[in-house]
Amino acid sequence: MTLPALLQVLASGLLMGLLYALIAVGLSLIFGLMDVVNFAHGEFLMTAMYVVFGLWLVTALDPVLLVPVTAAVLFAAGAFVYLAVIRFAMRAKANIGMVQIFATFGLAILIQGLAQFLFSPDYRSIPTSWLGNRTLAIGDVFLPLPQVFGGLISLLAFAGLYLLMNRTDLGKALEATREDQGAVALVGIDRNKVFALGWGLGSALVGLAGAVLAIFYYIHPQVGGPFALIAYVVVALGGFGSVFGALAAGLIVGLVEAFAATLLPPAMKSIAVYLLYLGVVFLRPRGLFGRL
Amino acid sequence: MSNRKKQLLILAAIAVIAGLLPELVTDVYLLNVVVLTLMFAALAQSWNILGGYCGQISLGHALYFGTGAYVTSIMFTTFGVSPWVGVFAGGIFSAALALALGYPCFRLKGHYFSIATIVIAEIGLLLVHNWDAVGGALGITWPIGQDSWWTLQFARDKAPYVYLALGLFIATWLSTYWIEDSRWGFWWRAIKDSPEAAESLGVEVFRSKMAAAALSAFFTAIGGGFYAAFVSYIDPESVMSFRFSLLFALPAVLGGIGTLWGPLVGALILIPFTEITRSYMGGFGNGLDLIIYGALIIVISLVKPEGILSLFRDRAKRGARS
Amino acid sequence: MTVNRRGILLGTVAAALFGRAAPALAAQEIVIGAVYPTSGPNAQIGVDARHALETAVDIVNAVHDIDLPTAKSEGIAGLGGARIRLVFADHQGDPQKGRAEAERLITQDKVVAVIGAFHSSVSSTVSVTCERYGVPYMCADSSSPSLHRRNLKFFFRPSAHDELFSLAMFDFLDAQRAAGMKVETVALFHEDTIFGTDSSNVQRKLAGDRGYDIAVDIKYRANSPSLTSEVQQLKSADADVLMPSSYTTDAILLVRTMGELGYKPKNILAQAAGFSEKAVFDAAGEKLDGLISRASFSLDLAAKRPSIAYVNERFKARAGRDLNDNTSRQFMALLILADALDRAKSVEGEKVRAALAGTNIPAERTIMPWSNCAFGPDGQNTGADPVLIQYLGGKWVTVFPEAVAVAGAKWPMAS
């Protein structure tokens, strides 16, 4: 491999990794808060992509402008899902984890069906936008602008999340609720409100990712699947409950995937990522930075 | 009569009814649904051994299903070995695989374990998908021949498959039945109630988990071999994909995880519903069947998170009290 | 929707006539089954297939003044004007489900024949089921070369398979090379399911046989979130001809990624699939000017054959897009079946099969660029000549073979 090709793969891997991290962190947040793995996470991503697409169709505004709007819509959707569905699944005394996995699994199928029902199964895309199809060329290395934008959003989101969790009351409430759900009730924190906000926040984060993806990726009801699988691996690799872990693991996965596609037959590139996960977790059973 | 004996009697009754179905039901499609229901009940029952009783939630059981399907198919199509032998070879191979994988994996807890099972199954799928010697993406086609119990090929007759699936279900049910009353079952219940007990039981518990994993993998692989004979064509996506792993766990969870009858109840509800929504609503391409299917799963999960079976247990408890 | 009384009546009457050389059946309705993916990642294919088949059913059932089999009469003349009714089933890309649906259509809806299935893996099991029940299977669009080589008597494939398609592609490359163009290296870029595997296997062999250097041979995972590394390898190799075998999603990602990395291939010669779908050109059409694809069908033949424009208009009214590689094959498969029913004058499996085996429809009475439609003993149409079409200025132009070409190919793509 020539040096420019190497640098290209490196750059692409990092940019993609930042996006994977952004997709994963919402999942990590929700898990860290209430021990729920959201099996509909890929469908939330897909929903965000359709939201951007729909808004773009209706308002003709550039997707870049629609990113914050989409995040807000997904925030509301996430909170709604918690209040309407997840809250009831958590009533189970026994095997809470399994029940929520299957409630969210059912939710995933339902959302896919809805997407097909509302939008038809055809593949959509946003053909022209400010950033779409534009590339920043530094020497022989090409940095596609949508992915660069995505990377920036991702970093901003992580910075924002760090500030939120460590410097604000809401963040402290989230932390506290995770530590001890019973105790926080005594202090007057409404558990349901906190969880709903947590779901909303986690969904907003994946909403940001979906909005960015829609600029350069195709949209259809099953688009979420491969991203969701990567997100689970990223979260587990980084360690459940660790925001920084999601960022680090996302970058690592992006890089490993990109390099594996050049060193191995590309059809098997994911094996490298999976082996990495297994290798890490056999040595550190809580992932790289997990606290749970 | 003891509760234990009563369970056996119920099993016998179910076996008789299921065994009579091919005589009573002539519609081929419905018999196909019966075969699938019994098969998934058996697979969910064997998943339940590891997931429900032992508490290790595997979401990668498609790996064993797939290896069973492939071993059986390769032994038949390449070496002419009867599937009767093939399914057992597949079972033993998968049990050995489960032991090898269990050794490092059982160190992992909770979701880390589950995700490890998912990625291991995906690795298996990718390896088989790219391995031309076992057909790769082209899959393996079973040669079309005369109806025969030796090759387990039947052109139109579903009855043999009903009996075979029923047999598999009975085998997995009996294993669960036996385990419930055994040392292992006792330990696992103890661990669920008090994690400290796990510490003191240490090595024996680890060994029992390994045995559970092997047993679970064994039956799952036999199911896979059966499926290969039933469909007469396999490819990596159709026997090793993640959606199968979920389909083995789902009936058990919906019916009542860690219970003797949960997987059957879950399969009886889930499988016919899946087939009927697809067959009579899916052809229109509007996604309505998926909406209904997804909604049902959500509703069942929420209304009775402990599983459908708890509906009956609650009623029984109330009955006993009054 | 479930068991159709008329269907049972039909079946009973047909059974009563078994063995007799009895002609016309004054029945009302003939049921034909269609098995396609209508949910899951390829659902759009199923949706389009429905439109194509319904267009065909309309041609058969109503009176149309065009020269296509059964068009000019109402319904199927040989069966007393009986009309066709389609029953659709979803196989979700799963061979087991496809088989279950085919069985259901045959035993509950009493279909006279089955059309399907897009996925070659599903066609594999469905065709075996049809064989077992003695019901003809029209393999409209599954292109795996192995399908017609299994000694099935009830299997009929009117269109070409991957070997024929790739042969046409390399014949074209040979012609360009003979005309003095630089065509020394090819890049194979294929997804990893049956389609990509079959396609690339044939291409690899032909490249070797005909003296083309394979600059790079990339098998990629279908539906990957990112293809950047893969495309980087294509860019580094910069072959004379890029030969992708990709479905819609990967095609969109491939084209966009090539643009992102600043890679403009010298020539693209595609194995249709994704590159015959409207969604790809909606997403990135401006980058694909000059792309050449193999095709079973080309719209510009309408200039010579008015039935093509007629059918396309009716299809477009239902589907909102022109006929393409898949939909044209699905449409034609149903018409060929109708033609056989017309000649068989019976709905009995063996008689329809015999009629299909004796099919001989000249090219002018089809909408395809075939030389004719006549099935060999293995069920493969021996006249299913593919063409190559080029995307120029937003339209597809037939460029190969010379006999049917409307214009010469713009080669290289960027000239």
The spatial strand order of the largest sheet of chain B comes to 1-2
Which descriptor suits the 3D outline of chain B? globular
CATH top level class name of the largest domain in chain C: Alpha Beta
How far apart are the termini of chain B?
21 Å
Q: CATH homologous superfamily name of the largest domain in chain C?
A: Response regulator
Structural class of chain B, by secondary structure, is mainly alpha
Q: What is the CATH topology of the largest domain in chain C?
A: Rossmann fold
Distance between the termini of chain C: 55 Å
Mean pLDDT of chain C: 91
Whole-number tally of structural domains of chain B: 1
SSE pattern of chain C? HEHEHEHEEHEHEHEHEHEHHHEEEE
**Relative helix content of chain C:** 25-40%
Radius of gyration of chain C: 21 Å
Largest interface: A-B, 53 and 48 residues
**Strands in their spatial order, largest beta sheet of chain C:** 2-1-3-4-5
The SSE order of chain B reads: HHHHHEHHHEHHHHH
Count of helices of chain C? 12
What characterizes the major β-sheet of chain C? 5 strands, parallel
Strand content of chain C: 15-25%
Q: How many structural domains does the protein architecture of chain C include?
A: 2
How large is the share of residues in beta strands of chain B?
under 5%
Explain how this protein is built:
Chain A has helices at 3-34, 41-59, 63-89, 96-119, 145-167, 169-179, 181-186, 191-216, 224-238, 243-263, 269-283, and strands at 135-138, 141-144. Chain A is mainly alpha-helical and 292 residues long. Chain A has a domain at 22-223. In chain A, a hairpin with a 2-residue loop joins strand 1 (135-138) and strand 2 (141-144). In chain A, helix 2 crosses helix 9. Chain A is globular, with a radius of gyration of 19 Å. The relative contact order of chain A is 0.21. By secondary structure, chain B is mostly helical. Chain B has one domain. Chain B is 76% helix and 1% strand. Chain B has a two-stranded antiparallel ribbon with strand order 1-2. Chain B is globular, with a radius of gyration of 20 Å. With 415 residues, chain C is an alpha/beta fold. Chain C has two domains: 5-160 and 302-373, Rossmann fold, CATH 3.40.50; 163-295 and 387-400, Rossmann fold, CATH 3.40.50.2300. Chain C contains twelve helices and 14 strands. Chain C has helices at residues 5-16, 43-61, 95-107, 120-133, 162-178, 194-209, 228-237, 248-260, 278-284, 306-319, 325-344, 349-357, and strands at 29-36, 83-90, 113-116, 137-139, 155-156, 185-191, 213-220, 241-245, 269-270, 292-295, 361-362, 372-373, 387-392, 395-400. Chain C is globular, with a radius of gyration of 21 Å. The N and C termini of chain C lie far apart (55 Å). At the A-B interface, helix 3, helix 4, helix 9 and helix 11 of A face helix 5, helix 10 and helix 12 of B.
